Amino acid sequence: MDPDGRFVQVPIAVARIAGSDDDDVRLCLERLGAVEIAWTDLALPPGIAADYVLDLDDDPHAVGDVAARLGPALADLGVRLELARDFPYRIVQDAAVRAEISTDDDEGDWFELHLGIEVDGRYVDLLPAVVDLVSSGRLALPRGRKHVSLPLGPEGYVTLPRERIARLVDVIRELYEIDGFGPGGGVRIPACHPGYVEAIEDALGVRTESSGRRRRPRGTHEGQASVPPAPPEGTVRATLRPYQRAGVAWLADLHARGVGGVLADDMGLGKTLQTITHLARTRAARVGPPDLVVAPTSLLGNWRREIARFAPQLRVVTLHGRGRASRLEDARFADVVITTYALLVRDLEIHAARPYGIVVVDEAQTVKNARCQAHAALRTLDAEQIVCLSGTPIENDLEELRALFELAVPGLLGSRLSFREKFADPIERCGDTRRLEALRRRVAPFVLRRLKSEVATELPPKTEIVRHVDLGSAQRDLYESIRIAAHGAVRKAIRKKGLAGARLDILSALTKLRQVCCDPRLVPVGAAAHVAESAKLTALLEMIEDLRAAGRRALVFSQFTSMLALVSEAFEARGIEHLVLTGSSRDRQGLVDRFERGEGDVFLISLKAGGAGLNLTSADTVIHYDPWWNPAAQRQATDRVYRIGQTRPVHVYELIVSGSVEARMVALKRRKQALADALFGEGNGGGFSEEDVEHLLAPLADDP
């Protein structure tokens, strides 16, 4: 073979071994693209005599590919291929590649990947060549090439099977583009995520080596499928379902590796029970500082009751209400301490000075803003593990996911600016599916999400119905007059402050239009006082009468507590027995117990007060009086009824004013859902633009 790589010289008469057939050899060469010299007009370099030639046009991948394939093909025919001593291509098997990972005392949260190969007894760094291949995008080789040749500087080239290199490049590209190089010159790998190491080992067919301070990260698991369901018997007074047992085992596996996670099961699948089981099991296995549960105020009672019910052996101290200051000292000797987000911030100096075992962040979407005080307070805690519980880990955008991971697995997704540049913007603005897959792969081992449709197959059917309501002429005219004024004000605000700066103006305008759809009496403008009709309230009253006649019980959700007051007033006028739960209700659990005992045909609940922590399976109907931006919030409300324990078919109604801002909101909500589906399932996400605002503020249409 010619060392300059342009021609391959095959002197058959010299290399031939007795017993081979010239015709077979010729056919083999021709299959690889060789041409008999007598049929070409190519000018060979001086001093070269050949029977066949290959014109490879100085393509190192082509040269290496032919060299790698020609030897075995000729050997099958009894012919030995001899390479010139100065031929610059080393044909090696992938097993000859050495992969090493290292860590540094100053970089304990990161490993570095090093790739090398032995050439003539010397170790040669292969990583620069692979990174160059990644950054240049030169892996798109002509069809038929089965090998890749990587430059090794003065040592020439190393030729490796293309399939292996392609799989390796996929991993290296992701690490190089997102994490970059470490101080030791290797590509950085998050120390808590050995899935990357496993992928590299799988691509190369070798196991990573370690030496000196180098150590191999422990294995991890992507979700529940890889985790054996550990038996929780003896730690809680409950019989866990198989998926719940798997969830407990997943939490235990993360705890053993010193990392946290996001338990993101669908609402109603028992995240609280799984977490209590995890707390009880770890408490039984060790003596140490107490665990801490941080939850919304409305859920403190629920945590106390559930722990007393399932793990009464745990000593619980609740830091809330009168006497909190005295109980702060008692909390040091508890098994589980329960507090609220607001009180965590207020008592932070005390909490930050104490170690904790497991910190549970319930309804973790509460701290989806990484810059809020509660999020900052949680980051200061000295904890063995932080577990975030949320049925809606993404409500609006990917920044919310990063906020949760900054608590559960700090550093995994980088800084806010880095995450925006490398993940959020490419995915949300550009629909970059490769970055989406990279983000999904990165978070997968630390997020456990199961849907009711997957694991709670015993649940009865759920029927979702959109009930369209047409406005009467007076209410329609009011809507249009407010819309025109609001549209003009929003356009002016956007021109002056930009889309982000005009956010409050936009929300104010949209809220007024939504209020008109609900009931004109909600709108604080003089013209509304002259509109007596309320098409949606009339429709609701008709529905409730029909449901009562059929023996069904319903929950009615609204974002506006003032709307619930109007509905309650209308119910009282018609003798409809009902209960009302809002943020100002004092005895939240007492109201729930009364409804579950059969008191009242309808339960009016504000979306904020009743979106979580309630079990209301005695109802079989959910009515969303007014749609909200966030589809997850509505699902949470629906799942107060559609959860484990429900035995009857459930009907979910959404009341929508035809052609209005409500109808347009329904379409936009699908984008929010798509963003979560894209990360935890299938699909792609989208953002929010000025065009969306124009669409929402468009005139009433005949169609939604």
Descriptors for this entry?
704 residues, alpha/beta, Rossmann fold, 4 domains, seven-stranded parallel beta sheet, six-stranded parallel beta sheet, disordered N terminus
Task: Report what the structure shows.
The protein is of the alpha/beta class and 704 residues long. The chain has four domains: 12-87, no CATH class; 96-204, no CATH class; 224-455, Tandem AAA-ATPase domain (Rossmann fold, 3-Layer(aba) Sandwich); 462-471 and 533-685, Rossmann fold (3-Layer(aba) Sandwich). The chain has 26 helices and 22 strands. It has a seven-stranded parallel sheet with strand order 12-13-11-14-15-10-16. A six-stranded parallel sheet has the order 17-22-21-18-20-19, sandwiched between helices. Helix 7 crosses helix 8 (271-285). The longest helix has 29 residues, at 473-501. It starts with 11 loop residues before the first helix and ends in an 8-residue tail after the last helix. 43% of the residues are buried. The model is unreliable at 1-19, 211-229 and 682-687 (pLDDT under 50).
Break the fold down into its secondary structure elements and pairings:
Layout lengths: L11 H4 L6 H10 L3 E2 L15 E2 L6 H16 L13 E3 L5 E6 L7 E10 L2 E4 L1 H10 L10 E5 L5 E5 H17 L8 E4 L4 H10 L37 H15 L4 E3 L7 H15 L5 E5 L4 H11 L5 E3 L5 H7 L5 E5 H6 L1 H5 L2 E7 L11 H7 L2 E8 L8 H11 L7 H13 L4 H11 L3 E2 L3 H4 L6 E8 L3 H29 L1 H16 L16 H15 L4 E5 L2 H14 L3 E4 L6 H9 L5 E5 H4 L10 E4 L6 H8 L11 E8 L3 H20 L9 H7 L8
Parallel strand pairs: 3-8, 10-15, 10-16, 11-13, 11-14, 12-13, 14-15, 17-22, 18-20, 18-21, 19-20, 21-22
Antiparallel strand pairs: 1-2, 4-5, 5-6, 5-9, 7-8
Helix pairs in contact: 4-5, 5-6, 7-8, 8-9, 15-16, 18-19
